[in-house]
Amino acid sequence: MKELLLSIDTGKSYTKTITKIGDKIEKVLFRTKVQEISELGVDVTPNSYLIEYQGKSYLIGDMISENSCNFQITKHTIDHQLSIYLAICKIIDRTEALKYGLPKVHLALNIPINSYKNITLKADYKNFMQNNGEIIYMKVNGTEYAFKISSIIVLPEAMGPLYCSNRINDFRNKVTVIDIGSLNVNYCTYNNLVPELDSMNISNNGINVLRAKIAEKLTATYGTLITDDDVEEILRNDGYLYISGIKKPESKEIIEKLITNHVAEIFNYGRSRGLTFNNTNLVFVGGGSLLLKNYILTQYPLAVIEEDGQFSNCSSYLNILEVKKNVG
User: Fold this and answer.
1) Is the distance from CB of 232 to CB of 66 less than 8 angstroms?
2) Do 110 and 156 form a contact (C-beta atoms < 8 A)?
3) Which of 77, 94, 233, 296 sees the fewest Cβ atoms within 10 Å?
4) Quick one: 112 and 202 in the same domain?
5) Same structural domain for residues 210 and 138?
């Protein structure tokens, strides 16, 4: 039986996965956009996946609209379950694990900090993802998979690179980690790598919320419907709104003001929960931190923005999983 150790961070926007094959790090990244479907009559495009699980069919990935992102704080949902199982299947492909029989999977998963602090929510989430210890069967783009999740450790968001084996000594002093995701922003302060319970907080100031603010403001300003998909394209490109091919020069100032205010809200929420940001190293992780990098540095010039912010949590989770597995 092939054993697989992998860490998975299922955000509201992207699912990130890391494992090791020998000494090589393997990464998987896909959109966490899930929609139940029936009788799909079009070809599945790259970076999209047709899933068959427990008698139902789902589409995951780029083919799904931004409006299908799940706006619930909890990860105890079918969307996250399917995304985690899909990530496992993709790693099974990379490792050719099915050649050795039924893969035996050991997982490190994360949950929002509010759930992490609740022992009952953690246990329920673990059992849900482990499928009560039963073998998991699913089909991905026509290929059948079977695997068993033998163990799960549940870890908090806002861990960042603190527990990466080659960087632990960089974070022995006081460090505050702010993890900007699609929906949530998680905050946690660590002293000598030990998390302070009272500093663990969560807000709903993620990138999807910012995207919705921009869409609403532009719709009101220009009198035409601007969708979340439109805003996604604006943020990916030059930051301007184009209507019927005509550039709206003043739109960039409107958008930048909204982003600046949103970043201020992220800091202010932390302060409202007792975080002073004084005498601490401030580390930003998550895909949202990369998008907001320049705006964050304008308000806090000494902040560290992790360049591999999307996989930063996963790297720490995998290292913790490996240590626990070896100790066990």
Assistant:
1) yes
2) yes
3) 233
4) no
5) no
